[in-house]
Design brief:
Layout (H helix, E strand, L loop, with lengths): L2 E2 L21 E20 L4 E21 L3 E6 L11 H12 L5 E7 L10 H16 L6 H8 L6 H6 L2 E5 L4 E4 L7 E6 L6 H9 L9 H10 L2 H7 L1 E2 L2 H7 L2 H11 L4 E4 L6 E5 L2 H13 L5 E6 L11
Parallel strand pairs: 1-2, 2-9, 4-5
Antiparallel strand pairs: 2-3, 3-5, 3-6, 6-7, 8-11, 8-12, 10-11
The structure holds 4-diphosphocytidyl-2-C-methyl-D-erythritol and adenosine-5'-triphosphate.
Pathway: Isoprenoid biosynthesis; isopentenyl diphosphate biosynthesis via DXP pathway; isopentenyl diphosphate from 1-deoxy-D-xylulose 5-phosphate: step 3/6
Protein name: 4-diphosphocytidyl-2-C-methyl-D-erythritol kinase
InterPro entries: GHMP_kinase_C_dom (IPR013750), GHMP_kinase_C_sf (IPR036554), GHMP_kinase_N_dom (IPR006204), IspE (IPR004424), Ribosomal_Su5_D2-typ_SF (IPR020568), Ribsml_uS5_D2-typ_fold_subgr (IPR014721)
């Protein structure tokens, strides 16, 4: 694969002890999941990260993120999923700690994550939690950071975090942090199915390095479909190069795609590094039928019928 030299991410502006103006004691936010309508990889950087060209879309599947401000300094995280870390290995914790240190905040936060987005699934669950914490604490403590400044901090936590701050229908380039708003995705029903396997994003990108990419998805055709507002053109242009790595490891992904298409999906594809598969449907009844079939055949237990979320900029949370 072509090697692309590292491009430095703009350093965040250090704070100069800005007074904390916010007064809110508690904020509740919806941290949305994403799907990748298109995912192309253009090359590998010297630090191992890859240059990508992706079309990202928010969906109406979310984690509830509650942030409470406390007089006791420090960060406390709790979650409904027993297997997730609640210490500094939780990305929501890292996001809070980052702002507390930079702005020398001498109060603390208690973060409660009520998780519904499948974990290690290619749906940016963790990234979306981190984005919600950055957004929420910026408001709560009156830090005065613009969306761009929040995104500059977000990329230090993960490549998907800036997108999770922006949300909606977006072209993501660079390592995923160079964002351009696209025309909104036409409304449709989205069926999401996560088979009972967890996939490491790092392992998938690394495995791609030893492969020749045979066919790149036509991201421009996808954008052109969005410009025309044509759901059919968007569906026809969907493509994800990471499928070539993850599907041979887990053939159940292909089986789920086939089941969705057999039940009337306009198209079905793996999201991100997988293993979650999503299908786009014009007809909600067909999506429900596909959901039943996938469960009946025990292809996946976590199967959800949901919608495109037309998140607009700055329209974050409940
Ligand atoms: C697969 C996607 O979810 C598609 O949206 C993203 O590209 C991944 O975003 P993410 O999970 O937020 O990624 P990070 O947490 O920053 O990185 C996890 C690992 O994925 C690999 N990685 C990630 C993004 C990128 N552009 N190139 C990479 O090679 C790196 O090996 C990294 O160690
Ligand atoms: N708040 C969090 N929510 C989910 N996972 C978390 C969180 N914090 C840390 N993790 C760890 O991160 C790993 C990946 O989680 P996540 O669900 O974000 O992956 P993903 O869906 O593949 O994300 P992406 O699409 O951005 O690659 C998990 O195995 C988990 O242990």
């Amino acid at each position: 694969m072509k090697r692309i030299p590292d491009r430095a991410v703009q350093p965040a502006q250090p704070s100069d002890g800005q007074a904390l103006r916010g007064t809110r004691k508690r904020i509740e936010l919806k941290a949305l999941a994403k799907i990748n309508l298109g995912l192309d990889v253009l090359g590998r950087r010297e630090n191992g990260y890859h240059d990508v060209r992706m079309v990202m879309q928010s969906i109406y599947l979310y984690d509830d993120v509650k942030i409470e401000r406390t007089k006791n300094p420090g960060v406390e995280v709790s979650t409904n999923l027993y297997f997730l870390p609640t210490d500094e290995n939780n990305i929501a914790y890292k996001a809070a700690k980052m702002l507390i240190e930079e702005f020398q905040i001498n109060e603390g936060v208690v973060i409660t994550l009520d998780k519904h987005i499948p974990v290690a699934a290619g749906m940016a669950g963790g990234s979306s939690n981190a984005a919600a914490v950055l957004f929420g604490m910026n408001k709560m403590f009156g830090l005065g950071l613009s969306q761009k400044e929040l995104m500059e901090r977000g990329v230090k936590l993960g490549a998907d975090v800036p997108y999770c701050i922006m949300r909606g229908t977006v072209l993501a380039e660079g390592i995923g942090e160079e964002l351009t708003v696209l025309p909104a995705m036409p409304k449709c029903t989205v069926l999401v199915a996560k088979p009972a396997i967890s996939v490491s994003t790092k392992v998938v990108y690394e495995a791609l390095d030893s492969k020749e990419i045979v066919e790149h998805p036509d991201i421009d055709a996808l954008i052109s479909g969005l410009e025309k507002g044509s759901l059919h053109e968007v569906a026809a242009a969907m493509g994800n190069v990471l499928e070539d790595v993850t599907i041979p490891m887990y053939p159940v992904i292909e089986e789920i795609k086939n089941e969705m298409k057999a039940q009337g999906a306009l198209n079905a594809m793996m999201s991100g590094s997988g293993p979650t598969v999503f299908g786009l449907f014009e007809n909600k009844a067909q999506a429900r039928k596909a959901q039943d079939k996938i469960r009946e055949k025990a292809l996946a237990k976590q199967v959800y019928v949901t919608n495109i979320h037309g998140a607009r900029r700055n329209e974050y949370g409940a």
